[in-house]
Automatic annotation (TrEMBL):
Protein name from the UniProt record: Tetratricopeptide repeat protein
Domain of life: Bacteria
Residues covered by region (Disordered): 735-758, 1401-1447
SMART domains on file: TPR
Record bears the keyword Repeat: yes
Biased composition (Pro residues): 1406-1415, 1422-1431
Keyword Repeat in annotation: yes
Keywords: Repeat, TPR repeat
InterPro entries: CellSynth/LPSAsmb/PSIAsmb, Peptidase_S1_PA, Peptidase_S1_PA_chymotrypsin, TPR-like_helical_dom_sf, TPR_rpt
C-alpha cells in the first residue's frame, strides 16, 4: 500500500477551463465518476445545477489533456451554510487514463481517533503540480464532518486549493472522506480543516455506496499480524497472558526447559511484591538489572500472578517499519473490554528513532481500558542511553523517567537462595545470578573461549551470528549472510584456513552441539520464505559485551560494513541506532550518511540528517551541522521536523543568528509532542535573553520547570542563570569588570567657588572636597565591583544557584555539564571565586563538547582575576583558536580586554579587531565598545572610538547598545560636544535598560550641572537615577545630587540626598556620601555632626575609606578647637600607608607643624609626599615645600623642586609653575602660601604670566587686610597697585578679575569716583563670573556717594543677576538703603522674596508710619569695614533648637521695618530672632 500512499492513482486536479490553474482536487470513485466539492465546480451562490463542464487531470497518470466532466443528475449538493452539503459528482466525458484506479473508500465505523492522514492540494504557491499535506484526524465535528489538523511543522497548511482532496487514513489504509472547508485564519489557524465523511457522501449520492466497504476480517488480521510478534488466536483475538509460552516472548530457555515442569520459578524478594504492587497501580512498569539476572522470567511471572487474563500485546521487533508502536497505539485492537499489556522485552530496542515516546505512552494510557506497558532493560544499555546527549538519549531518558522502575539484582537474596537450592539442588547460586546458572553460562563461556583455538570455524560462525544480533538485527541471520560473514571472519582471524563449504559445515556442527540440555551456541531456525537461518544463544551477546579486555570480542568493522552494503536505508536505521548505543560514533555516522543520501526513505533520511547534525555539532563543525539540521527541519517527517527546528535554532545562535532561531522556535513551541514544545521553550528563552526580553524568557523557563518534565526541566534550570542575570554576565562573560570607563565621573561634582563666593580663607577641609573625584575613585576601586548587578539580582541569583545545584546533583550526564558551567558563572557573579573555580574545573572535566569552551572561558576569567594570569590567557588562546563562532569570539574579546587593561594596546587591538570582523551579533558589539574605550585614551583615537561606539549603539544588542550610547555620551562630553552627548545619553536612557540607563542619566546630569541653566534638569535626572533601584548608580546619583545641592546653596536638601546614599549600604557610595556630608557640615562649622560621620567612616572595614575618614576627622577636630586630638588622627592617617589618603594627611599635618613653628618636621613630611607615588596633593606639597625653602632663602632648591627634572633654569617655565601652584593654593584656601608663590612668579617678570600673577597677588594682599591693623592702608595700597598694573597690561583674560577686585579695593580706600570708573565697563559687560559682584559694588559706590537714585537700578540688576548669593546680598543692602530713605513699603517688597524663600510665615503688617528724616546712605557697605559693629551688648534672642534660615542681618532689617512702622511687638520678635536688642538696631543714621 505504500505506493498508493505516495502516488494515489485516483487523485485528480480540477480546472474550470482547460488552461486555468487547478482550483481544487477530487477523486475517482468509479469507472468514470469523480467526486469533489460543489464550490470547486462553481464559485458563488448561483442557483441551479451547473451545465458547463469542468476539466479533470489525473495527478499521477502519464501526461494527458484535461478531461471534460459534468455534474450528473442528482449529484449537485451545494453548501447550505450550516456545515452541510457542498458535494458534486462528476461524470467524465471520455475514459480515464489506464493508470487510473478508483479510490478504496472506507467507512469511519472502526474509528479514526488519533489516526494520521494524507491529502493533496493546489495552493496558490504551487498551482500546477500541487503539494501533499499530512496531519492527524482529531475526531468527529458535527453530523457530517471530521476535524483534521495539518502537522504544524511539516509541509503545507490546509488552505485554498485543497478542497475536494481525498483524505487517506494511514491506519485503515483507505479514503475515509473529502476535504471541504477550513477555519478562518483570523479565527483559529490555517492548519485546521474539515472533511465530509464517506458515509455522508453516500447519503448525498447513494450510487457511491457500491464502492464503499469496511476492511475485511482478513485485512484487519493481516494488518495486525504484520505488527505483532505473536499470531492472533483462531478467533482473531490477541492472546491472554496465561495462554502465552514465555519462551515465545523472550524468556530464555534453560538447561531444564526440555523437561516439562522441570523449570520452576524461583521467587525474588522483595522484587515480586514490588512488581505486583506496581502492576496494579501503574501504567508503565520497568524491570531493570544486569544481564541474565532473570528479568524476563521475573516480569512474566508477575503478570501471571496479577493479570493472567489480560491480553498480551507483543510488537514485532524485526519489522522494517519503525512506526510499529505508533500504529499499535492508534489502531482499534481486538481487546473487547479486557485489560491489555504491552510487552517490551529489552526496551532499549524500542527506543530507537520512531519508537516509544511520550505521545505513544499517552495514547495507550487514554484507551478504555488503558493499556499497561511492561518492559525490561539491561543496566548497561540503560546507562548508555541515559548518557547520550542527542535526541535518542533525550527520548530514552524521558521514557525511562515515566516508568515505575524496579531494580533486580543479579544475585539472589539469602532467603531466595535457600528456595533456589531446594528447587535446583544441583546448582550453586553463590557466585552467579540465577539466569546465568539456568542457561549454563559457565559452560557456554568456556566452550566459546576454547573454540577460538579448538574449532576456529565454529567460533567464527558463533561470533558472526552473535554480532548480527549485537548490531541491532532482531531477526535471525539468513544462511547466505552468515556464510558471507563466516568467510570475512575467517579471513580476518585465521588466514591459514580455506573458508570453503566443508569448513562451514564443520563449524555449524560444532556450534550447534548442545552444551547442557538443549542449550547450544547456535540454533538453526526458519528464515524468510522458510529458508535456513541461524540465531545465536541470547546470552552469548551479553557475555561478549562484558569482555572489554578481549579485542576479538568487539563487533568488527567488517560486520558493520557488510550490513551497510547489504541492507536498505530503512533497515540501516536500527543498525545506526545500535552503533550509537554501542558507542561506535564513526560507524554510526557512516551508516547515517548512507541513510540521509538515499531517496527511498524520506522519514529515515530526516532522522539521519537530524542525528548527523547533532554529531557535527558535537565535533564543532557548525557549518555542516547547519546544512544537515536545515534538511531535517525542512523535511515533512512529523516527529523529526520540530525537533530539528530546535536543534537548528541552537546551531544558528552559536553561529550568531538571532532572527531565524526565534522563528524556528516559535514554530516548534506549537509541536504536538509536549516535550519538544518545552525544549523549544527553553531554546526560545535563550534567544529572548540575547534579544533583551529577559522577563518573558524567565516566564517560559519557570513554566517548563513547573511542568514536571525532568528532561526539559533540567535544561530549563541550566538556562535559568543567564536569564536571571539578563543574559549579560558582564565580567564573567568577557573578563571585564564594570566600573569607570570613558572618563565617567566617579564622584561628586565639586563645589567650585561661584561669583558670589566669600573672600579666600583658610578652610582645611576644602582640599579634600576638591579632591572628591579622587576619594570616590579610590574607594570604588579598592575592591572588585559587584558584577552583573549583584545587589539588584541577589534574590534571583539565589534562585538560580538553587536550581543549578539541583540540576548538577541530578546525575543527568547530558545536563550536568551545563549546570556546572552556569553555576560557575553565578558563583563568579557572587564573588565566590574559589567555589567558582572548583565548579568550572568540574564542568571542564566532563569533556562535554558544547560546554567545554563555555566553562573554559569562565574559568579563564576567574584565573585572570587571581594569581594565575598566565594559565587564564593560555586557556583563552586555546578557545579563541577553536573555530566555534560564539565561544572563540567570546575568548578573543576577553583577551582583547585583558591586554587593554594592561596597557598592551597592540595585541588588544588585534584581538578586538578580529572579533569585530566576525560581525558576531553577541560579541562584535562588546568588542567594539572595548576597542572604543581603549582608543579614546590614545592620542588621535577619538574619531575611531566615536565610530565604534555609534556602531555598537546601533547594533540592536540589548545590553551593549545602551552601554555604547552611555559611553559615547561620556566621550562627546569630554570632547566638548554637549548636544551630541545629550542625544547619545538620551538613547541609553530611552532604552530603559536596567543597568545602563541610570549611568546615562548620571552622565547627562553631570554635564548639565556644568552648564548655565542646566541645574534643574540635572537635579531631575539625578533624582530619577537615585530612584531607579540600580545597585550602584542609585547610591551614586544620591551622592552627586547632594553635591549639586550643596553647590546651589541648599544644604538641608543636600543632606537628605547624602543620607539616601548612606542608608543604601552600598559598599562604596555610602562611604563617599558620608565623607561628602561631613565636609558640608564642616563648612557650616557643624563640627559635632561632622565628627560623628567621620568617626563612622574611620571605623569602616574598608581601609581606604577609614584612612580618608581619619584624615578628614583630624582636620575637623582641629577646626573645632581640639588641635592635639586632630593632629593625632592626621598622624595616624599619614602613617597608614594608604594611597592617596596618607599623603593628604601628611600634607595637612605638615601645615599644622608649620603653624607651630616646626619647619623641619613640616619639611620632612612634605618631602615624603613629594617623593611618594603621585597624588592630588603632590603639587600642593611641592608648592608648600617650595614656600618653606623660599622663606629660608634657598631659592635654588625651591626652583629645583618645582622644576623637577627640568633643571634648565627656564624662567618662563618656572614662572608658569609658580603661577599654577599659587593659583591652586589660593583656590583651596592656602592664602599665605599662595601669596609667596605668586610673588615669586611676578618677580620672574615673565610677560606671559605676570598679568595674572599680579592680579592674583593683588587679591591675596587685599584679603589679608586686618581692619584693626595700622598698616592696613599700606596693604590696600599695594593691592591697588598690583591690580592696576595687571589691568593696564590689557590682557583680556585678566581684565574682569582685575576690574572686580581693583574696584573693591578703591571702594575700601574711599576713592569712589575711581571705583565707579573701574567697575562700569565690567558691570556693562557679558562676563558671568565677575560681573555680579561688580554690579553690587557699583550700587554701593553710588549709594555711599549720596547718589541713591542712580544706585537703585544697579541694585535691581544685582538682584536679578542670577547668582543667588550676590542677589541676596544686593537685596539686603538695597532694603537698608530704602529704609534710610523712608521707603518702607518698597523695602518690604524688596525683602519679601527672602522671607518667602526661607519659609517664614508673614503676618499682616500695619500701615507704615511717616518715614523718618532722610539721611546719607550708610550701612555695612558705606565705607571700608572697620570690624564688627560697635554698640551696646547684644541682647540674646529667643531660644530655638536650630539657627533661623535667614541671616541675622536680614532678621534685623525686618525688625527695623516693623519699628519704623510703629509695631514694637513685631519689632521685638524680629530683633529677638536676630539676637539683637532694639537699641542696637533701628534705622541707620
Amino acid at each position: 500500500m505504500s505506493a498508493a500512499w505516495e502516488r494515489p492513482p485516483w487523485l485528480v486536479s480540477i480546472r474550470r477551463s482547460p488552461h486555468e490553474n487547478p482550483v481544487g482536487a477530487g477523486m475517482l470513485v468509479g469507472p468514470r465518476h469523480v467526486l469533489t466539492c460543489a464550490h470547486v465546480v462553481r464559485a458563488g451562490t448561483a442557483l441551479g445545477m451547473p451545465r458547463e463542464p469542468v476539466f479533470v487531470e489525473f495527478q499521477y497518470a502519464e501526461a494527458h489533456d484535461p478531461l471534460p466532466a459534468t455534474v450528473v443528475p442528482g449529484g449537485w449538493h451545494p453548501a447550505t451554510g450550516t456545515d452541510t452539503g457542498d458535494v458534486a459528482v462528476l461524470e467524465l466525458g471520455s475514459p480515464p487514463p489506464p493508470e487510473a484506479v478508483p479510490a478504496p473508500l472506507r467507512t469511519t465505523d472502526s474509528g479514526t481517533w488519533d489516526h494520521q492522514f494524507r491529502a493533496y492540494g493546489y495552493p496558490r504557491e504551487h498551482p500546477r503540480q500541487g503539494v501533499p499535506v499530512r496531519g492527524e484526524i482529531i475526531g468527529h465535528a458535527g453530523s457530517e464532518w471530521l476535524q483534521v489538523e495539518a502537522s504544524p511543522h511539516t509541509g503545507w497548511a490546509l488552505e485554498q486549493g485543497f478542497s475536494g482532496s481525498p483524505v487517506w487514513d494511514v491506519h485503515s489504509e483507505g479514503v475515509i472522506g473529502m476535504l471541504v472547508a477550513r477555519d478562518s485564519v483570523t479565527k483559529v489557524d490555517r492548519r485546521t480543516a474539515y472533511a465530509i465523511r464517506v458515509e455522508t457522501l453516500v447519503r448525498y449520492w447513494p450510487g457511491l455506496g457500491a464502492h464503499v466497504r469496511d476492511a475485511t476480517t482478513r485485512e484487519v488480521r493481516e494488518r495486525l499480524e504484520s505488527l505483532l510478534w505473536l499470531p492472533l488466536t483462531e478467533d482473531g483475538e490477541i492472546a491472554r497472558v496465561d495462554r502465552v509460552d514465555p519462551h515465545d516472548i523472550g524468556v530464555s530457555r534453560s538447561t531444564y526447559s526440555d523437561r516439562p515442569g522441570a523449570s520452576p520459578y524461583v521467587p525474588r524478594s522483595p522484587q515480586d511484591g514490588l512488581l505486583d504492587d506496581a502492576l496494579l497501580r501503574s501504567r508503565f512498569v520497568l524491570l531493570a538489572g544486569q544481564s541474565k539476572a532473570g528479568k524476563s522470567r521475573t516480569l512474566y511471572e508477575a503478570l501471571l500472578r496479577t493479570l493472567p487474563g489480560a491480553r498480551l500485546i507483543v510488537p514485532r521487533p524485526d519489522g522494517t517499519d519503525r512506526r510499529i508502536l505508533d500504529d499499535l497505539s492508534r489502531l482499534a485492537l481486538p481487546l473487547g473490554q479486557d485489560r491489555a499489556v504491552l510487552w517490551l522485552d529489552d526496551l532499549h530496542r524500542y527506543l530507537r528513532p520512531g519508537g516509544l515516546d511520550l505521545q505513544i505512552l499517552d495514547r495507550l494510557a487514554r484507551r478504555q481500558p488503558a493499556v499497561t506497558v511492561v518492559a525490561t532493560i539491561p543496566a548497561k544499555q540503560r546507562a548508555a542511553l541515559a548518557g547520550m546527549g542527542n535526541d535518542i538519549g533525550r527520548v530514552a531518558r524521558t521514557v525511562l523517567g515515566k516508568a515505575h522502575t524496579v531494580e533486580l539484582p543479579a544475585l539472589l537474596a539469602p532467603q531466595d537462595t535457600a528456595a533456589a537450592r531446594e528447587l535446583y539442588p544441583r546448582e550453586d547460586f553463590a557466585a552467579r545470578g540465577i539466569g546465568e546458572h539456568l542457561v549454563a553460562a559457565p559452560l557456554l563461556e568456556q566452550r566459546l573461549r576454547d573454540g577460538a583455538e579448538s574449532c576456529p570455524e565454529g567460533w567464527a560462525l558463533v561470533k558472526a551470528a552473535t554480532d548480527w544480533h549485537r548490531m541491532g538485527m532482531t531477526g535471525p541471520v539468513p544462511e547466505s549472510a552468515l556464510l558471507d560473514l563466516f568467510r570475512s571472519y575467517m579471513s580476518a582471524h585465521y588466514l591459514r584456513f580455506d573458508a570453503d563449504e566443508t569448513l562451514y559445515r564443520s563449524g555449524l556442527a560444532w556450534a550447534g552441539e548442545p552444551v547442557a540440555g538443549a542449550i547450544a551456541l547456535l540454533y538453526r531456525v526458519p528464515g524468510p520464505q522458510d529458508r535456513p537461518a541461524y540465531t545465536g544463544f541470547a546470552y552469548t551477546s551479553e557475555y561478549l559485551d562484558t569482555r572489554a579486555d578481549d579485542p576479538s570480542a568487539a563487533v568488527p568493522r567488517i560486520a558493520w560494513e557488510y550490513l551497510a552494503e547489504h541492507r536498505t536505508p530503512a533497515e540501516l536505521v536500527p543498525i545506526a541506532y545500535a552503533a550509537l548505543v554501542r558507542e561506535e560514533p564513526d560507524v554510526a555516522e557512516g551508516l547515517l550518511r548512507r541513510i540521509a543520501g538515499a531517496s527511498g526513505d524520506r522519514d529515515g533520511a530526516a532522522w539521519a540528517s537530524l542525528m548527523l547534525g547533532q554529531l557535527s555539532l558535537i565535533r564543532g563543525d557548525v557549518d555542516q551541522a547547519l546544512e544537515l539540521l536545515d534538511a531535517a527541519a525542512s523535511s515533512r517527517t512529523e516527529n523529526v521536523a520540530p525537533l530539528a527546528q530546535v536543534e537548528l535554532a541552537g546551531a544558528l545562535v552559536v553561529n550568531g543568528d538571532r532572527t531565524r532561531p526565534r522563528q524556528l522556535l516559535e514554530s516548534a513551541v506549537a509541536s504536538a509532542d509536549p516535550q519538544i514544545s518545552r525544549l523549544a521553550q527553553v531554546g526560545l528563552a535563550q534567544v529572548l535573553v540575547l534579544q533583551g526580553e529577559g522577563e518573558r524568557a524567565e516566564r517560559l523557563l519557570e513554566a517548563v520547570l513547573a511542568s514536571g518534565d525532568a528532561e526539559a526541566g533540567y535544561l530549563a534550570g541550566a538556562q535559568l542563570a543567564r536569564t536571571l542575570t539578563d543574559g549579560d554576565l558582564a565580567g564573567v562573560r568577557t573578563g571585564r569588570e564594570p566600573g569607570t570607563e570613558l572618563g565617567k565621573p566617579a564622584a561628586g561634582m565639586g563645589v567650585a567657588r561661584g561669583p558670589g563666593a566669600p573672600e579666600p580663607a583658610e578652610r582645611p577641609w576644602t582640599l579634600p572636597r576638591m579632591m572628591g573625584d579622587a576619594v570616590a575613585g579610590q574607594i570604588t576601586s579598592a575592591a572588585r565591583a559587584n558584577l552583573g548587578g549583584l545587589l539588584i539580582h541577589q534574590g534571583k541569583l539565589d534562585r538560580a544557584e538553587a536550581v543549578l545545584r539541583s540540576v548538577a546533583d541530578s546525575g543527568q550526564a547530558h545536563v550536568v555539564p551545563w549546570a556546572l558551567a552556569g553555576l560557575g558563572d553565578v558563583l563568579t557573579l557572587q564573588e565566590r571565586y574559589d567555589e567558582a573555580r572548583q565548579v568550572l574545573e568540574a564542568a571542564i572535566a566532563t569533556g562535554h563538547p558544547y560546554v567545554l569552551p563555555v566553562a573554559q572561558v569562565g574559568l579563564a576569567v576567574v584565573l585572570l582575576g587571581g594569581d594565575e594570569e598566565e594559565r587564564g590567557v593560555a586557556i583563552l588562546r586555546e578557545v579563541a583558536g577553536s573555530g566555534r563562532p560564539d565561544q572563540s569570539n567570546r575568548a578573543a574579546c576577553a583577551l582583547g580586554e585583558w591586554h587593554a587593561a594592561r596597557g598592551e594596546t597592540g595585541p588588544a587591538g588585534e584581538w578586538l579587531e578580529r572579533v569585530i570582523a566576525s560581525d558576531h551579533p553577541e560579541w562584535a558589539p562588546p568588542a567594539r565598545v572595548a576597542l572604543a574605550v581603549m582608543l579614546a585614551g590614545e592620542e588621535g583615537g577619538a574619531d575611531r572610538a566615536r565610530a565604534l561606539l555609534a556602531e555598537a549603539m546601533g547594533s540592536g544588542h540589548p545590553h551593549q547598545g545602551p552601554r555604547a550610547a552611555d559611553l559615547l555620551g561620556d566621550l562627546l562630553v569630554r570632547e566638548g560636544h554637549p548636544r551630541e552627548a545629550e542625544r547619545a545619553y538620551r538613547t541609553a536612557i530611552d532604552s530603559g535598560h536596567w543597568y545602563w540607563a541610570p549611568p546615562a542619566r548620571v552622565g547627562l546630569a553631570v554635564m548639565l550641572a556644568g552648564e548655565e541653566g542646566g541645574a534643574d534638569r540635572a537635579r531631575a535626572l539625578l533624582a530619577e537615577a537615585m530612584g531607579s533601584g540600580h545597585p550602584h548608580q542609585g547610591p551614586r546619583a544620591a551622592d552627586l545630587l547632594g553635591d549639586l545641592l550643596v553647590r546651589e546653596g541648599h544644604p538641608r536638601e543636600a543632606e537628605r540626598a547624602y543620607r539616601t546614599a548612606i542608608d543604601s549600604g552600598h559598599p562604596h557610595w555610602s562611604l563617599i556620601a558620608r565623607y561628602d556630608l561631613a565636609v558640608m557640615l564642616a563648612d557650616e562649622e557643624d563640627f559635632p555632626r561632622a565628627e560623628d560621620l567621620l568617626r563612622g567612616l574611620a571605623d569602616s572595614a574598608d581601609v581606604t575609606a577609614a584612612s580618608w575618614g581619619r584624615a578628614l576627622l583630624g582636620m575637623v577636630l582641629i577646626g573645632g578647637g581640639r588641635r592635639a586630638e586632630g593632629i593625632a588622627h592626621l598622624r595616624a592617617a599619614g602613617d597608614a600607608g594608604v594611597h592617596p589618603a596618607s599623603p593628604m594627611a601628611r600634607f595637612r599635618l605638615a601645615k599644622c607643624l608649620t603653624e607651630d613653628g616646626d619647619d623641619d618636621g613640616a619639611a620632612d613630611l612634605l618631602r615624603s609626599v613629594v617623593e611618594d607615588e603621585p597624588s592630588d596633593v603632590t603639587e600642593a606639597a611641592r608648592a608648600s615645600l617650595c614656600v618653606l625653602l623660599l622663606r629660608r632663602g634657598d631659592r635654588e632648591a625651591a626652583e629645583n623642586l618645582l622644576m623637577g627634572v627640568e633643571t634648565s633654569g627656564d624662567a618662563g617655565a618656572l614662572a608658569l609653575a609658580y603661577l599654577g601652584t599659587g593659583e591652586f593654593l589660593l583656590e583651596v584656601g592656602e592664602v599665605i602660601a599662595a601669596g609667596d608663590l605668586l610673588e615669586a612668579a611676578l618677580e620672574l617678570e615673565d610677560p606671559k604670566t605676570a598679568p595674572r600673577a599680579g592680579a592674583l597677588l593683588g587679591v591675596v594682599r587685599r584679603s589679608m587686610v586686618d581692619p584693626g591693623d595700622a598698616s592696613s592702608g599700606e596693604a590696600l595700597e599695594e593691592a591697588r597697585r598690583l591690580l592696576t598694573d595687571a589691568l593696564d597690561t590689557g590682557e583680556p583674560s585678566v581684565e574682569p578679575l582685575a576690574r572686580r577686585y581693583l574696584g573693591s579695593t578703591l571702594f575700601r580706600l574711599g576713592r569712589y569716583a575711581d571705583a565707579e570708573r573701574t567697575l562700569l565697563p565690567l558691570a556693562r559687560s557679558d562676563d558671568t563670573v565677575h560681573r555680579p559682584q561688580a554690579l553690587l559694588l557699583l550700587a554701593q559706590v553710588l549709594a555711599v556717594g549720596d547718589r541713591q537714585e542712580e544706585a537703585y537700578p544697579w541694585f535691581e540688576r544685582a538682584m536679578a543677576c542670577g547668582d543667588p548669593e550676590t542677589g541676596s546680598a544686593a537685596r539686603r543692602l538695597y532694603c537698608e538703603l530704602l529704609m534710610s530713605a523712608g521707603l518702607q513699603e518698597r523695602a518690604r517688597e524688596v525683602l519679601a522674596p527672602l522671607v518667602t524663600e526661607a519659609g517664614v510665615e508673614e503676618e499682616p503688617l500695619p500701615e507704615p508710619l511717616p518715614a523718618p528724616p532722610a539721611g546719607p546712605a550708610a550701612g555695612p557697605a558705606a565705607g571700608p569695614p572697620a570690624g564688627p559693629p560697635a554698640g551696646p551688648a547684644v541682647e540674646p534672642g529667643p531660644q530655638r533648637s536650630a539657627p533661623h534660615p535667614l541671616p541675622a542681618g536680614v532678621l534685623a532689617l525686618l525688625g527695623d521695618v516693623a519699628a519704623a512702622e510703629g509695631d514694637e511687638r513685631e519689632a521685638r520678635y524680629w530683633y529677638g530672632l536676630a539676637g539683637r536688642s532694639p537699641a542696637a538696631s533701628g534705622p541707620p543714621p
